[in-house]
Amino acid sequence: MSKKIILLVGSPRRQGNTMTVSQWVAEGATAAGADVRLVDVTKLNGIGHGCLSCYRCQKSTEYRCSQKDEVTELLLSLSGYDTICFATPVYFFSFSSQLRSVIDRMLSLIKYNGAGEMQTPLRCSQLALVATAGDTEEQSGVDSMRLSLSHFVDYFHLPAVESLFFGSCDKPADMRANVEARGQSIAFGKKLAMD
Ligand SMILES: Cc1cc2nc3c(=O)[nH]c(=O)nc-3n(C[C@H](O)[C@H](O)[C@H](O)COP(=O)(O)O)c2cc1C
Q1: Taking a C-beta distance cutoff of 8 angstroms, is the pair 15, 132 a contact?
Q2: Is the shortest distance between the CB of 117 and ligand 1 below 6 Å?
Q3: First and final C-alpha spacing in the chain
Q4: Between the CA of residue 144 and those of 39, 61, 101, 138, what are the distances in Å?
Q5: How many Cβ atoms from other residues are within 10 Å of residue 54's Cβ?
Q6: DSSP alpha helices (H): ranges in 32-69?
Q7: pTM of the model
Q8: Which one, 9, 102, 116, 163, has least CB within 10 Å?
């Protein structure tokens, strides 16, 4: 059975650097036989709300966010994927607010049992990060996202994060014409499909 990969793209620029790279990653993964879904999370109804800290998800027996919107539907689907790939521009040394909103609402995908053990319906065996930034790797702040995701995978008992990063990004048209970046992104997608 082919590997199921979901890319959650959190750039509000429809044809920006992050979407271009994400589409190449999806192209590579698809070519390697994976079943790929790319979601532009910035267009989902409800994305602006973030987690409301209502804790209703923790009082319910379901792994369901209490907000009735497209983000909840997306979260419910995540347990069907082998790989979850977060794709984001670096905004002030971190994730875009839209992607952050999805990540925070993943609280609805955990519960603790009577023995204090964390339970989750997620069955993914791989978590990946795709990021683009205006500054260099050292200056951009991508390291803070990698650190954040390393805590995230520890928490969810997942393997280490795979990441693809492009720094010093400028005009989206330049990225679209960047043959080397395209090759690296397609190779990354293939790796995600085959690992
Ligand atoms: C609000 C905002 C904050 C940003 N913060 C950073 C930053 O902290 N570090 C960095 O290297 N680039 C930063 N950038 C630049 C973007 O990360 C970069 O242009 C990225 O490639 C944009 O991706 P996109 O084309 O998908 O929108 C910022 C851009 C915006 C709009």
Answers
A1: no
A2: no
A3: 14
A4: 24, 34, 17, 11
A5: 11
A6: 56-59
A7: 0.97
A8: 116
Name the residue of 17, 20, 90, 94 whose CB sits within 8 Å of the most ligand 1 atoms, as the mutation to test its pocket: 90
Among 56, 96, 87, 88, residue whose Cα is nearest residue 72: 56
Check if 93 has its Cβ closer than 6 Å to any atom of ligand 1.
yes
8 lines ligand 1 (CB under 6 A): no
Report pLDDT digits (tens) over 46-76.
999 999 999 999 999 999 999 999 999 999 9
Amino acid identity, position 4 = K
CA nearest neighbour of 105 among 134, 138, 153, 73: 73
Nearest C-alpha neighbor of 10 from the set 103, 126, 89, 69:
89
